[in-house]
Amino acid sequence: LCYNYSIIVIIDYFMKRRLFSPREIILFLKKLARGAILWGKLVMPILLGAWFFVLGPAAQAGQTILYQENFNSGHAAGWQEQADSSAVWQVQCGKYNLKISDYNVGASSIYQNGFSWQDYSFSFDIDLNDGVDRNVIFRRQDDNNLYSLGLRGFWRYAPDDTPVIYLQRCYQGQCVGHNYWNYFAAYHFNDNKSALNHETAHFDIQVIGNRIKVYYNQVLVIDWQELNDNYPKFGTIGFSGWTGGGAVDVSWDNLMVKT
After folding, report:
1. Which residues of 25-47 are buried (b: 16+ CB within 10 A; e: fewer)?
2. Fewest beta carbons less than 10 Å away: which of 95, 182, 202, 224?
3. CB under 8 Å, gap of 24 or more: what pairs does 84-93 form?
4. Each residue of 116-157: pLDDT tens digit?
5. Phi and psi torsions of 154, nearest 5°
6. Please, which residues have CB within 8 angstroms of residue 181's CB and are 6 or more apart in sequence?
7. Which of 184-220 are b and which e, b meaning 16 or more Cβ less than 10 Å from the residue's Cβ?
8. Tens digit of pLDDT for each residue in 87-122?
């Protein structure tokens, strides 16, 4: 509308002052039209490209990285480990590794500087070398208030329900979703019984308000939304494992938490 209005003003200006003949005005408008085509095909793409080049990184810079770790230092700084004697936490080959050999033993490690985090994305690489029960913890306030993403490999006593990726929630001591008979949000590998074992995978957990999305190798596998207010609303991250279904060997790397 503004462009057309400008053309009318220009024509009116030239006609009233008799600066150009009607034929000259028509030639002028043809040149203007060709210029508009050139603008649309050449100039505008260049300007748009420059806009994305300059402002694109600025838009990404709007995201805040709360925590980033690749363990290349050889240490798991800021992590508090809890384990029985047969469970070993260690940084090995630039990865944070947990090995548990004895049966019915659990171990966990909690990052100590993220208890105030609320809405965030938590991404990481994981080597699922061995075991059945491996877990990723997020929005953890304490043992009674947390979310956990279970990465359960094939278990011969639950062949129809494993392998599976599932959510567990603990709120004020009431925990649900950790048993295969009461999953409330889960993704089953019905056609791939070797999934989540002897593989390296990438996960991205996005927890915003009352909604949780889980991506496994860039594929959305869980999209869960809480229906009431009884859920953890902030908290840190962590890892855990348990040998109820077999020895555990798992490593994490390339952690990133961002808003």
Report:
1. eeeeeeeeeeeeeeeeeeeeeee
2. 182
3. 87/241, 92/251
4. 999 999 999 999 999 999 999 999 999 999 999 999 999 888
5. -60, 135
6. 161
7. ebbbbbeeeeebbbeeeeebbbbbeeeebbbbbeeee
8. 999 999 999 999 999 999 999 999 999 999 999 999
Q: Which two tokens stand for residue 41?
A: 């095909």
CB 165 within 8 A of CB 222: yes
- What are 61's two structure tokens? 């810079």
Query: Amino acid letter at 164?
Result: V
